[in-house]
Design a protein that fits this description.
With about 425 residues, the chain is of the alpha/beta class. Helix content is about 55%, strand content about 15%.
Length: about 425
C-alpha cells in the first residue's frame, strides 16, 4: 500500500507541475480516498483555483488547514483564493496573521502585495514589496512585481530599473521580458520593445499577448486581440482605470455617444427595454444610457473590471465572456447595442455585426466608437496595440450584415501623450 501511495503521489505531483490539472485531480482524489491528508486537500484546492472554481477551492483549503493548522502555505493559498472571491478583507487578515508569526514570510508578503495592487492601493503594495525585497534582495519575482506597481503608477523609469534587475537575476524569465517589451512600448521605444517581445517568444512561444504586440510593431494585423491580452491588460489597470481615463486622458465617449444618440433618434424611441453594453468595463457606458433603458446586460473579459461594474448596481446581469461566445448562447433580443472604445481591440468586425444583428429586435440600434484610420482602407493594428478602422470599412461591413448607418461623425476619443486621438462615432439601425 505504501509503495502504491508513493507512486500515485509522484504521478499526481508531476501532472500538477505540468499543468495537467484534470488528470492530477483524479490522482489526488484517489490518494484522498486511500488516505485523507492535508497535502491532497491543498492540491485539490489549488487545482480548483486554477480552474476558476473558487468555492470548491475554498472548501478543500479549509479542510487542509483543519488537518494541519500550522501550515502557513495552506493559509496563504486560502488567502489567495479569497482575494478572487470578493473577500479581500478576509484574505488580508489571514496574511497578517501569518506575518505576525513570521514577519519575513516571502510568500505571504508577495500575495499581500498583489492583493493591495488589485485594490488599487499602490502605495501599500509598494511598501510590502520593498519589505519583501529587504528580506530577499535577490528575488527576481519580487523585483518584477515591484516593477508592475511602478508601471501602474506611471513611474516608468523605476519600473524599468526593477524589471532590468529582475532580468539580471533570472535572464530566461519570459514574463519579465514581456513586461519590458510593454514598458518600452509605453515609452514609444519601438525597437527595444520589439527586441524584448522577440526574446520573450524565444522562451515562451505560446505567449499570445507578446505575439499580438509584436505584430503591431512589424506591420501585421491579426483579426482580433487575444482574449488573454485583453483580460490581463484590464485586470491590471482596473483599480486606476476610471481616474486615468477620465482625468488624465479626458475620455468622454459614453457621454458623447449618448448625446449623439439623442440627437439622431426620434424621442418616442428612447424608452428602450433591453440594452447590452459590449466590453462594458466598469459600466461607464451603461451609466450614460441608464435614463433611457429599463434593463442592461454587461459583458467583458476582465474579471476585475466586472467586479467594479457590479458594485455600481447598473446592470441586471454581467457576464465574463467574449463577444462571440455570448451571442452564440444568447436568447435575449436587444433594443440597443453599445460598444464604447471596444473595437480598438477588434480588427475584423464582420462577425460582430452579424452576431449582433441576429440578437437585435426590429429597428434596434447599435452605437459604437472606433479609432479613425486616416490613410488606407479596412483595418490596421497600430503600434499602440489598438486597431483603427476606415470609415468606408464600417459602412460596407455594416451594410453586408443588415445594419444601416443612420449617422456618423468624427470626434476626439481620448488624449495620448497630450495629443487627441481621432475617432468616429457610429449609429446603426437594423433594417
Amino acid at each position: 500500500m505504501g509503495n502504491e501511495m508513493d507512486l500515485l503521489r509522484k504521478e499526481a505531483n508531476e501532472l500538477f507541475n505540468e499543468g495537467k490539472y484534470v488528470e492530477a485531480r483524479i490522482r489526488y482524489q484517489k490518494l484522498n480516498r486511500l488516505h485523507p491528508s492535508a497535502e491532497s486537500e491543498n492540491y485539490l484546492g489549488l487545482i480548483a483555483f486554477y480552474r476558476e472554481r473558487y468555492q470548491s477551492a475554498v472548501k478543500h483549503l479549509l479542510r487542509a488547514i483543519e488537518q494541519d493548522t500550522e501550515n502557513n502555505d495552506y493559509k496563504i493559498n486560502l488567502a489567495m483564493v479569497y482575494s478572487f472571491c470578493d473577500k479581500s478583507n478576509e484574505a488580508i487578515l489571514i496574511l497578517k496573521t501569518v506575518l505576525n508569526n513570521d514577519s519575513q514570510c516571502i510568500k505571504a508578503l508577495n500575495v499581500l502585495g498583489s492583493i493591495y495592487a488589485g485594490e488599487g492601493s499602490l502605495a501599500s503594495a509598494e511598501d510590502v514589496y520593498k519589505k519583501a525585497l529587504w528580506v530577499s534582495p535577490q528575488n527576481a519575482d519580487l523585483h518584477n512585481n515591484l516593477g508592475n506597481i511602478y508601471k501602474m503608477s506611471q513611474n516608468l523609469d523605476k519600473a524599468q530599473r526593477n524589471y532590468e534587475k529582475a532580468l539580471s537575476l533570472s535572464s530566461q524569465n519570459a514574463n519579465t521580458l514581456y513586461n519590458l517589451g510593454c514598458l518600452h512600448l509605453l515609452k514609444n521605444e519601438k525597437l527595444s520593445a520589439k527586441e524584448y517581445f522577440e526574446s520573450c517568444l524565444e522562451i515562451d512561444n505560446n505567449n499570445e499577448s507578446a505575439k499580438y504586440l509584436l505584430s503591431s510593431l512589424v506591420g501585421n494585423s491579426p483579426s482580433i486581440a487575444p482574449q488573454a491580452y485583453i483580460s490581463e491588460l484590464f485586470d491590471e489597470f482596473a483599480p486606476t482605470f476610471e481616474k486615468s481615463l477620465i482625468e488624465n486622458l479626458e475620455y468622454s465617449v459614453p457621454e458623447q455617444l449618448f448625446t449623439f444618440f439623442m440627437d439622431n433618434v426620434p424621442q418616442p424611441m428612447v424608452d428602450l427595454d433591453y440594452m447590452i453594453d459590449i466590453g462594458c468595463g466598469t459600466g461607464l457606458g451603461a451609466k450614460a444610457f441608464s435614463s433611457v433603458t429599463k434593463h442592461a446586460i454587461g459583458i467583458d473579459l476582465s474579471a476585475s473590471m466586472l467586479k467594479l461594474a457590479d458594485a455600481k448596481n447598473i446592470f441586471d446581469q454581467t457576464y465574463r465572456t467574449s463577444i462571440s461566445e455570448f451571442f452564440q448562447l444568447n436568447q435575449i433580443k436587444f433594443d440597443l447595442f453599445l460598444a464604447c472604445d471596444v473595437f480598438i481591440y477588434v480588427g475584423d468586425l464582420e462577425n460582430i455585426f452579424s452576431e449582433t444583428y441576429t440578437s437585435a429586435k426590429d429597428k434596434a440600434y447599435f452605437l459604437f466608437s472606433t479609432e479613425l484610420l486616416v490613410e488606407g482602407e479596412g483595418f490596421h493594428l497600430q503600434a499602440s496595440g489598438r486597431y483603427a478602422h476606415s470609415e468606408n470599412y464600417i459602412s460596407v461591413k455594416a451594410d453586408v450584415s443588415g445594419w444601416q448607418v443612420v449617422e456618423k461623425k468624427i470626434t476626439n476619443i481620448r488624449k495620448e501623450k497630450g495629443e487627441w486621438v481621432k475617432g468616429m462615432l457610429f449609429l446603426l439601425q437594423k433594417n
